[in-house]
Amino acid sequence: MRDGRALATPGAIEAFRAHAVEAYPCEALGFINPWGHYERLRNVAREPTKHAVPDKNQLGLLIAKGNVRALCHSHPGGPDCPSELDARTQQDMDLPFVICSTNGQATTEPFCWGDDLLDTRPLVGRTFRHLTDDCYALIRAYWLLTHGVLLPDFPRGWEWWGKGYGGETDLYRRFFGEAGFHQIDAADARPGDVWMAAVRSDMPNHAGVFQENGLALHHPSSGLPHDPTRLSRREPLARWNPYIVQWVRRP
Fold first, then answer.
1. pLDDT, tens digit only, all 251 positions of the chain
2. What are phi and psi of 117, to 5 degrees?
3. Which one of 28, 157, 179, 250 has the minimum C-beta count within 10 Å?
4. What are the residue boundaries of the structural domains of the chain, listed by start?
C-alpha cells in the first residue's frame, strides 16, 4: 500500500480463497484487518449467489474503528474482473477491494485494486483485466508516473460501449472531458496526447498515449474481460490510425 504496509499476508489470501470455495455457489464476503489477516463477514444479500452485501451496522462499526484495510468478495462462476457495481462500491467506500472467481473447486488468483495501493509495475507488459488493467487504467498509470497526477477513475462494466452506462454509451469522450482533457486536431498531436479509437463499435472504446518516434502506448484486449495473454505495449501508431476518431490533450 502507499503507506508502506503490505495489503495482506499470504495466509490471508489463502483463507479468502478457501472461503470462496466453501461459500460457492454464494458469494463469499470478508475483509483484511489492520494486521493483514482475513476475517469473514456474513453475506446478507437477498440473492447471495449474485451479490455480496454485509450487515451495514457491523461493517460500519469495523470501518469506524479503523479495522478494515480492504474488502474481499468472490465471483461464483466469474467474471474475473470487477463489475460496474463493484467499481461504484469501491469508489464510494474508498477502500481497496480484493476479488477472486471460483467454480466451487478452485479459485483464480485474487486481484486487488484501489488508489490506496502502490503500483510500481512497468507500463509495458501488464496483463489485461477490464477496469483494473485496461486501456484507461494504463493512461491513468502513465499520468501518475509521468506527471504525478492521479486522473479520476470511472466505474464501468464490461462491454459498456454496447450496453451503456446509465443509458450512455459514449463514455470515453465524457471520461476524458471530466478528467480535464480537451479536443485537439490530429495534425497538432504531440507526445503525451491521448487518442481515442472505435474498434468494432460506433463509439470510442479504446484509447492510448502518443509517444516519441511515432509509437503508441496502449493496452489492447482480445474481447475477453480478463486475458493474461494481452499485454500493454508500445507499437507504431500507424496501426491504429484507421480507427482513431478523436485526439485530446490535458494541460
1. 999 999 999 999 999 999 999 999 999 999 999 999 999 999 999 999 999 999 999 999 999 999 999 999 999 999 999 999 999 999 999 999 999 999 999 999 999 999 999 999 999 999 999 999 999 999 999 999 999 999 999 888 887 776 655 556 678 888 899 999 999 999 999 999 999 999 888 889 999 999 999 999 999 998 899 999 999 999 999 999 999 999 999 98
2. -90, 140
3. 250
4. 10-113, 127-249
Q: Is 26 a catalytic residue?
A: no
Parallel, antiparallel or unpaired: strands 215-218 and 206-211:
antiparallel
Q: Can you read off the three cell numbers belonging to residue 35?
A: 494486521
Q: Which of 73, 75, 130, 218 is catalytic?
A: 218
Q: Is 19 a catalytic residue?
A: no
Q: Which of 73, 75, 130, 206 is catalytic?
A: 206
The CATH class for the domain spanning 10-113 reads alpha beta
Asked about 206 being catalytic, the answer comes back as yes
Where residue 64 falls (left for φ over 0; alpha for ψ -120 to 50; beta otherwise) is: alpha
The fold of the 127-249 domain, in CATH, is: endopeptidase fold (from Nostoc punctiforme) (3.90.1720)
Which among 216, 82, 80 is positioned nearest to 71, based on CA atoms? 82
